[in-house]
Amino acid sequence: MEQEIKLLKGNEAVAEAAVRCGCDGYFGYPITPQSEILETLMELRPWETTGMVVLQAESEVAAINMIYGGASTGKRVLTSSSSPGISLMGEGLSYMAGAELPCVVVNVSRGGPGLGTIQPGQSDYFLATRAGGHGDFNMIVLAPNSVQEMYDFIFTAFDLAFRYRNPVMILSDGVIGQMMEKVTLSPALPRRTQQEIARDLRSWALTGKPAGERRNIVTSVQLDPHVQEGVNHRLQAKYKAMRENEVRCESFLCEDADYVIVAYGCSARISRKAVELAREAGLRVGLFRPITLFPFPYAELSALNARGFLSVELSAGQMVEDVRLSVGCRARVEHFGRMGGVIHSPNEVFEALTSKFTDK
């Protein structure tokens, strides 16, 4: 089957990917700047062609608990929201991590704190990478910087969610969610039948108890503290495996760089142009883009032999802490950020770099 190319918003690409990757259900609540995900799914009407359930819940709290129920039966379930809505989902995400249930959560983040603004922000970094809920748990966090990656990462996220039986978050932002680019759409994957789910996931999913087999129980509570500690040790071993096997990143002109800009999402797109401006000015500058924010590419960033690192974020400075952990004391680490929905320009990033690291 030939691939299809469409001009889509990032949010629209998520909806297209959900239908084509075999997602069984979407449960969410509208909030700017991610409302087009739900709106596009309603326009696509996948329940008529694939049987996919699309439901607007009465709140984000309701949505994440619907996700919990769907995931417990082995279904591929997806939700999306923006910053304050993700905060409301925190308890449910912790429950799902504790019960070892797979799901995909898309956060098209906005400026904060509080209701903040409907404009883009990246101040949800801590929320995403430091679990976003109570207890010792982690989620793999993918950070797209293009509309194509918004589409592709839905497929990747579901694969990872089921590989590790754990929630996976796609941390986007209002720029990537609202911008339009050409997207190559892959052919739809075969949808799993209930019989296939029962056969492949019988060790944990609630698909009905065949005669003679043990009963599956989905829960995150163990009243015996020694049993609960054992659960935690098992979960920590899983998060260690994520750190060892799932790091993703990319670099641009870092091989000879004296200074490296570290950025993700829309900030990485902007910073790439700043790198080009720096090179034109005779400065050896590179760009390092973490694609997984958890696990963070500590070793890959640490391996770069640069004199200085500039963390560029739409926040007061959150990822910069992981950059400092990577670099240690061997090089200077600085931060440049805008807040409240203001988006930095390539010239501003270039000027921040030169003012912090050069005599100019």
Structural account:
- This protein has 360 residues and is an alpha/beta fold.
- The chain folds into two domains: 4-185, Rossmann fold (3-Layer(aba) Sandwich), CATH 3.40.50; 250-357, Rossmann fold.
- The chain has helices spanning 10-20, 35-44, 46-49, 60-72, 83-88, 90-99, 125-129, 147-164, 174-178, 194-200, 225-245, 265-280, 298-302, 319-327, 346-357, and strands at residues 4-9, 25-28, 53-56, 77-81, 103-109, 140-142, 167-173, 180-185, 249-252, 259-262, 285-290, 292-294, 308-313, 332-337.
- The strands form three sheets. The chain has a seven-stranded mixed beta sheet, with helices on both faces. A five-stranded mixed beta sheet has the order 9-11-10-13-14, with helices on both faces.
- The radius of gyration is 21 Å and the shape is globular.
- The chain starts with a strand and ends with a helix.
- The model has no long low-confidence stretch (mean pLDDT 96).
